[in-house]
Design a protein that fits this description.
The chain is an alpha/beta fold. It folds into three domains: 2-145, Rossmann fold (3-Layer(aba) Sandwich); 149-299, no CATH class; 315-384, Rna Polymerase Sigma Factor, Chain: A. 48% of the residues lie in helices and 15% in strands. The protein has 17 helices and eleven strands. The chain has a seven-stranded parallel beta sheet, sandwiched between helices. Strands 9-8-10-11 form a four-stranded mixed beta sheet, with helices on one face. The longest helix is centred in the C-terminal third of the chain and has 22 residues, at 362-383. The protein starts with a strand and ends with a helix.
Length: 384
Amino acid sequence: MKKLIILGSTGSIGVSTLEVVAACKNRFRVLGLTGNSNLDLLERQIQRFHPEVVVVGNAVDAARLQLKYRRKLQVLYGPAGLITAATWPGADMLVSSLVGALGLEPTLAAIGKGYDIALANKEVLVMAGTIVMAKARQHKVRILPVDSEHSAIWQCLKNEPAKNVSRLILTASGGPFWRLSRQELAKVDVARTLAHPTWNMGRKVTIDSATLLNKGFEVIEAHHLFGIELSKIQIVIHPESIVHSMVEFTDGSVIAQLAIPDMKLPIQYALCHPDRSANELPKLDLPKIGKLTFSKPDFTRFPCLRYAYQAAETGSTMPAVMSAADEIAVQSFLDNKIGFSQISKVIAKVLKKHEVTAKPGLKDILSSTEWARREARKYIARIG
């Protein structure tokens, strides 16, 4: 049995991961689960999967759960609890599916323990891709992508050397607004933005998908995961979300990975690799789908995508600053403090003000993210 620790078990990826675990009987044992404030769901997961350790958001909830489960379960809380859970003895793999910067230090800690990483937290590589990948090589740890796009590229590459790769082609659904004008984009509200036409994701990722910054994050992630230079990573809009990504090779051949849009497929591939396990998910029916369409992204209407490429090209602390500014901007939009089009303005303002740190270590990256959050909050207070 492969022993798992799941960071963010009450989020959309965590829930799907546990559905895969339940379907793959006798293949996995869950050692650790972490949630935040969704205690009802977390308790149902505890009762079904019987972990050894769980983490919640605060001390009060932790004390209540500990009293209820007594010695059957170790209950921890906060960032320190996440690191303890991520390094819990006896694990084989960490499923890193927290959203935002919170997942970086626990993921690095798990790598230090020699645990393979099933990575669904984009910010881990966006913020500190060079550090994370170097540490993974040092500890001989596999970073297995869970995002459908990176899983697709991983499957298409099949150990091909980088010199044979002409382009990585990341597909993007385009979110709910890819046909809207700039004037229309300025008027969209939270409820409409959260209504993604294809994928069922958490609130933050859904907003990032609508601004296309999520795809910019994926460009940076692909650069680190596969060692492909940024100029060779292209994005195409593909609303049907059937082609999950493609690789073009130097001879002109293009290999694509196709499947229904369901995150349980790439999750299962990462957890079971190198095996492919049968499942009960619907199979792809191309005649029923009828057609697959592709178009170029619009960097003018969706400037967050342009900022992501610029931050990636600058490197150093800039991607981490972009990610942190986006966290604050997205939450402010969800709280109705700013409009949809102002998310990109917050990010642009913070990026313009940031002074890059040369050859940053982890402390530099973390301090830069704190600075970016403060600057984003200040700017939002002025425009709100």
